[in-house]
Design a protein that fits this description.
The protein is an all-alpha fold. Helix content is 72%, strand content 0%.
Amino acid sequence: MIKLLVNLSHFEYDEFQNQLNSGTNSYKITRLMKTHPEITKDEIFKRIFKKKRNQTNDHLLRNELSILKRKLESFIVKHAQSDVSENNIYYSHYTLGQWCIKKGLTELASYYCDKAKKLAGEVDSARGLLQINKLRLQIIQYSKSDYHLKLRSLEELRSDHIHYLKNLVAEEIGFADFIEAGAYKLASNLRKTDKSFKNTQDFKTNVESSKSKIASYYHFKSLGYSQQGKAAIEQLNKALLILQEQTEIHNLDAERLTCLSAIAMEYALLGELKKSRETYRSIIINSSFQFFAARNAVLFNYCTTLIKLKQYKEALVYIEQLEKEELEPIVQERIYTMKCNCYIFLEDVKKLKSILPQKLQSYDVSVRAYYRFLFTIYYLIKDEEELAERELVNIKNMKGFNETDYTPLLNLFEKYVETYTARKYKEKQYIKLLKQLNHQVDVLREHHKQISELLPVMWIEQKTAELNKN
């Protein structure tokens, strides 16, 4: 530590002294070391503690020197220039090594460089180890070792450098695999929605195994993106395990949230909605979530999961957050549908009416029909079946309605209203009508898949299920 202290410039020394309280032992020891570079520990102990140093009381000086050393190292790191990011786990030791090299302290530089190398190795940072090797080369060049030792050191350095470089290449290939896996997943989705899409390329990872943890991370993440269901979740969890030990991956928090959101999506697709919900919640409570680039997408998917779980009030909380964001029109439309969904199943007729458009003339026939179905639901929730029937008549009489896909839905609503009214007035044909209603629900679900997931259909299905229970 004395070597660090005496190699401070006058300006650095004065600034460091000013940071110490003049009444503390650290301040006194600093002055002694600076003015008497050859002073021994026994002399320091006697001047500070006014007694002789022995095995029993030696811990007093060790503690003081340990505290002073940490303060001095922190001061140097704070004021020294470094060519690595302070976010790296090895930053402090690497920077101290650089500082020591500039001061000609090669032995101390080697000490700090070894510590930096150990830390970078623990997190498997190929980039960091390659950077530290450049510092190792300077230490070898400036050291006073004989040529034989220098030669062995240089040969070892070259061997290490090639090893780290191979790991870095594996990491970059792993990242390229992840890009390809993302393209593969997008192509798979396009094939489902666009039958004219001809891309049939399969995904194959180029990094089967690697000693590099970062390369392994991208390997597992790529497999997670290229697979589905439980297989995808298994691979993504393997990637997350690596992230728990890693500090070198760029945007570490974002990577972790990305993997978790992919897992939540897979759980939702498997129908394991409670696991999906819990995974989304773990993302949302993360302190980094507010800065996450995919924040809106996560909230949107979380709302979708909550609605499927019939947790409408919680869904509305996050829907309101999304409404404050600048979103694409198609996303705004979906959020509006989610909001209608919540109000309908909560039977909050006041809020439902407040978001339904009052003037429908400007919309095309399909959109007008859809909104009139929502008004029909509104009246049925209010137990005003006559007004609901009037809406259904308006739908049937709309010009161009027969050219839409909604005729089966209109027939289903008419049958539901008929069955609902028969039950309300305890008519004899109620049981017969309920059987017919169940049959129409099944027919629509089986033969009219293009409208089977619409909100009005889901509402009819739920109400039909309630009639069957009573």
